[in-house]
Design brief:
By secondary structure, the chain is of the alpha+beta class. The chain has six helices and five strands, in the order ααααββαβββα. A five-stranded antiparallel sheet has the order 1-2-3-4-5. A hairpin with a 2-residue loop joins β3 and β4. α3 packs antiparallel against α4. It is globular and about 50 Å long.
């Protein structure tokens, strides 16, 4: 009876466990974090539940959490891999978005790279599936003498052509990696917010980069 009452306290809607659970799901837990959550719950409730029952109940709970998070991750996944080796691609141009630029998050010094398919698109005005652009954005710093210097990396943003997979965003998929870390994906809405900034450039294949002849 004591074990059952303890577990019911754990699962009741008003318990302190549920805010933690909602927070965890909202941040797309990794398996490591799920295990940490399980350990913490065990510490909270082993005084009230027999060890065997804790294991049985929490195994079920962790399994359910894992399934829910996997579904969430699939919904958010853009299918775009980190662009290894992008700095060996064609460097199309560099620009500086000064303070006051909108959106504010894009303020910085940025370098634009194009893979071979994207480079061909820039030359011909026709972008085949697989064409990929990378924007490597950094903070900028005052270097004195009316000069700017490159600071720390803010984000690596990726734009990939796949007309069948991304029809709602003009045939382009969007992803971004915070600080250039492959594990820190930024895009959570299928690229809709990114695409909104590109919509005014519909007459240029939704690109800021011009179809010039590099």
């Amino acid at each position: 009876m004591k074990a059952r009452a303890g577990f019911m306290n754990l699962m009741r809607p008003g318990s302190s466990f549920f805010p933690l659970l909602r927070s965890a799901l909202g941040s797309s837990l990794t398996l490591w974090a799920i295990r940490r959550l399980r350990t913490q719950v065990c510490r909270w409730y082993t005084t009230n539940i027999k060890t065997t029952e804790v294991t049985m109940k929490l195994n079920w709970l962790v399994g359910a959490l894992g399934a829910a998070i996997a579904v969430s991750a699939l919904a958010e996944d853009t299918g775009i891999a980190f662009p290894d080796g992008y700095r060996n691609w064609f460097h199309h141009r560099s620009t500086v978005n000064m303070t006051g630029h909108q959106p504010e998050g894009n303020v910085g010094l940025q370098h634009v790279y194009a893979n071979p398919a994207a480079l061909e698109g820039l030359r011909t005005g026709k972008f085949a599936d697989g064409a990929t652009f990378v924007v490597d954005r950094f903070k900028y710093e005052d270097a004195g003498n009316n000069s700017l210097a490159q600071g720390s990396r803010k984000v690596i943003a990726v734009m990939v052509r796949n007309s069948a997979r991304y029809p709602e965003t003009g045939g382009w998929g969007f992803e971004a990696f915070k600080g250039g870390d492959p594990s820190q994906r930024v895009v959570k809405d299928g690229g809709k917010a990114c695409f909104a900034c590109h919509v005014p450039h519909a007459d240029n294949h939704y690109l800021f980069s011009k179809n010039d002849k590099p």
